[in-house]
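Before relying on records like the one below, remember that each one covers exactly one chain. Contacts with other chains, cofactors or solvent are not represented anywhere in the record.
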Amino acid sequence: MTSIKAPAVEEWLKDLKFDTTWRQKKAVRLARKEKEKEKDMQLLAPASKARIRDLMSVLFNHAIRWEFTDRNPISGPNKGAGVRQSSKRQSVPDILEVSEIQAIVAELQLRERVLLFLDMATGLRRGELAGVRWQDFDFAVLDIDVQRSVVDQVVGRCKTEALQKRIPLDEYTAQDLLAWFQQTLYRDPDDYVFAANSSRAGKKLGKQPLWLSTIMRYYIQPVVKRLGIKKRVTWHTFRRTYTTLLHANGEDVKVVQELLRHSSSRITMDIYAQAQMPAKRAAQQKVVEMVRSEKTAPEAKKMA
């Protein structure tokens, strides 16, 4: 612990990479040469590096509490003295227009359409979307009780108070869900709504949720490409689009925060919501009209 220095941690974070294909590989992988593996490696995003930095700081604070050490080189003795790691985005995430969403939905089959609307019209995260079971829905009062999140087929519970709040369910999505209920082979209350139905699942057939990355790659992204939409579309794109549309409709910030189940409104507005071009143009126009009134317009001055 005493040998760890802030500049050394910064250099280590700078070179951190991850395997871009690990989600598509089987649990037991074939050994490959390092040169071949290097082709699939990509630098971690700044936000991921910042989370690792923060986790290291928490561990050092825990060590200080137990008197294993008396210093935290990650946070430093004062502001700016610790590990410097930006969490700035590498690029602005894409947001879909309403017309683009409608075009995508029109090309999808029932299962993918339900997945898309559950992701967008409820703000569910991908792990929560994979983990929903029929028992989580109350069609009488139209809401969802999110109980779990599934990441790489590992089931975990929603831990924070914000994540445990019930989510409203709209009538259109409820109707699609009931239509999917009639079509799917897995209808027991504890069955996953989107259960794995491939013969390759073996004994786990119907007992595990679908790999949503596979659904996106083979069913939704090809539709996006065929429609000529030049945007990077992922499951998170629909959640961000939902946030932006709520903001564009003038919804109260607290309402938007609770619909998305964020811990604070700052996350909702600073990270997720984006102002759409029509709203920005309208706001700009109001200022222009105030400044360029008849009394201040060049034509009016010339006539004077």
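The mean pLDDT is 79.
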